[in-house]
Amino acid sequence: MADAMPKVIVIGGGPGGSTAAGLLAKGGVEVKLLERAEFPRYHIGESITTSCRAIIDYVGALEKVNACGFTTKTGVLMRWGQEKDWVIDWTAQFGADTRSWQVDREIFDQVLLDNAADSGAEVVQQAHVKRVLFDGDRAVGVEWQPAGGELRTETADYVIDASGRAGLISAQHYNNRRPHEIFRNVAIWGYWENAELLPDSPAGGINVISSPDGWYWLIPLRDNRFSVGFVTHKTNFVERRREFDSQEAMLAAVLGESETMKQVLAQATQLPGVRIEQDFSYAADKFCGDGYFLVGDSACFLDPLLSTGVHLAMYSGMLSAASILSLQRGEVNEPEAQAFFESLYRNAYHRLFTLVISFYQQHAGKDRYFALADTLSRAAQGDTQSADLAFGEIIAGLTDLREAADRAGTAAAPITETIDAAATGGAKPVQELLGAAEQARLRAEESSPNQRVTMAPMYIDANDLYDAASGLYLVTEPRLGISRVTSEAAVAAG
Q1: Do 275 and 286 fall into the same domain?
Q2: What is one Pfam family matched by this protein (predicted)?
Q3: What is the DSSP string of 226-293?
Q4: Is residue 246 located within the same domain as residue 317?
Q5: What percent of the chain has pLDDT over 90?
Q6: Three-class DSSP category at 17
Q7: Torsion sign over Cα 357, 363, 364, 366
Q8: What are the Cα distances from residue 395, in Å, to 56, 82, 95, 384, 436?
Q9: I need a labelling partner for 281 at 20 to 30 A (CA). Which of 305, 312, 321, 454 fits?
Q10: What is the pLDDT of residues 443-465, one digit of tens each?
Q11: What pairs with residue 127 in β-bridges?
Q12: What is the domain extent for residue 486?
């Protein structure tokens, strides 16, 4: 075990950076979080997956978020392609307490940033990080400038880049982001009062409506406000934008082209202001390296169709903290920690990317989407759960939490067992997202009576450079980190 805890600089105070900073500080690490803006600040990405609720509980901010009075989200209604409406209701599928929120991000992000500070992280706002410093290929610190101050150089043992699309390491230092041409989209949106969700929508659920040129969203926020927007390819957006004198006129026109959107906004009043933002999807060649981890949008960005941005940010923030804590405790070496982070984060991204890309083939139909989700969920062989349950699990973000603890990829706890554990008695910490039977089986496999195994191990494929018998996996109790299955349990798992 190392003699002293490391120093970590976290760039960016969004959900990913705040999650990483808070968890590291709780683990005894010296953490400085540098955020360019002054919170609260506006941000899009208002529809939150239920997986985030488990992570928020684990970082200690669940009561604080609940106190904000956000709209409770229980699923999604999709009016997609030529099919009738189809509903994913998490409470019907997984239990009455499987839910999340539709949030005002300026408030939501403030709560998480304050929680990181309360956990012991030093938070500096209006701190402009100019660049990440490298010694060869190793990140060793940053150059940054406080508001009204002089440029400073600060060293660190690890840098977590949660700088979003600015991507100080991936976009600016290495320039190794790969765009996805099919997802070079643009979003235009605004806010309304007194809109209406489509009939049969899950309580507080988002509505997603397809069109020949893209798709619309309708998100019910608190105080009877609704976020309403349209996403289309950049080429179509540029052509259409020439038709209008203002972005307000353009948004009104594209909403008027949808009978569904005219229906839900018939009695609504538009609030001032229309916003436009590029939704270009991309992924960096590497999500981590010597001395650094890329969290959230700094590593990858995905079309917002399934509302997964905050999930990917918080999930990767948790993984980065686990990796650094276990490195410092000597539980893994640096190549192992990097392979662990890269594998889990990239697998989560690619699963969602594969599912989203299928939706842009609107003629495929929901049966095909559900069948694809069933394949992507990697549920246990012989599992009798329906494909729509697999789809619901993925868009809830729960598949990633399950697979972070998955012993052999195809030998996970049954989905219903996993979700039941999360749904009874309120939101559960990450380690409790396994069914009781799976946890009991793991305890029986422990090689030492003093070792507490709280999650099933994650399988590392041979292609990830390590022997499958090493069995690296995520643990959250009694402390956050990476562990490896014992040789006896690895043999038992085959």
Answers
A1: no
A2: Trp_halogenase
A3: EEEEEEEEHHHHHHHHTT-SSHHHHHHHHHHT-HHHHHHTTT-EEEEEEEEEEEEEEEES-SEETTEE
A4: no
A5: 59
A6: helix
A7: positive
A8: 17, 21, 16, 20, 24
A9: 321
A10: 333 333 332 222 222 222 223 22
A11: 146
A12: 334-493
Tokens of 362: 């609107």
Same domain? 34 vs 155: yes
352: how many CB neighbours lie within 10 A of its CB?
25
| 87, part of any domain | no
> Given phi > 0 = left and psi -120 to 50 = alpha, else beta, which region is 28?
left
The two beta strands, 127-135 and 138-146, are: antiparallel
Alpha-carbon torsion, ordered 338, 341, 346, 349, to 10 deg: -160
pTM of the model: 0.82
CB atoms within 10 A of CB 109: 25
Confidence class for position 416, pLDDT limits 50, 70, 90: very low
Q: Could you give the CA distance from residue 97 to residue 440 in angstroms, rounded to a whole number?
A: 23
Q: In this structure, how many other beta carbons lie within 10 angstroms of the beta carbon of residue 437?
A: 12
112 and 231, same domain (yes or no) = no
Q: Which two tokens stand for residue 276?
A: 């436009």
33: closest CA among 42, 24, 41? 24
Tokens of 367: 């049966």
| 3-class secondary structure, 20 | helix
pLDDT digits (tens, 9 = 90+) for 179-224: 987 788 999 999 999 999 999 999 999 999 999 899 999 999 999 9
By CB atoms closer than 10 A (0-12, 13-18, 19+), residue 41 is middle
β-pair type (214-220, 206-211): antiparallel
User: 430 falls in which pLDDT band (50, 70, 90)?
Assistant: very low
Domain tally, the chain: 3
Distance in angstroms (rounded) separating the CA atoms of residues 438 and 456:
8
The answer to whether the CB of 191 falls within 8 A of the CB of 271 is yes
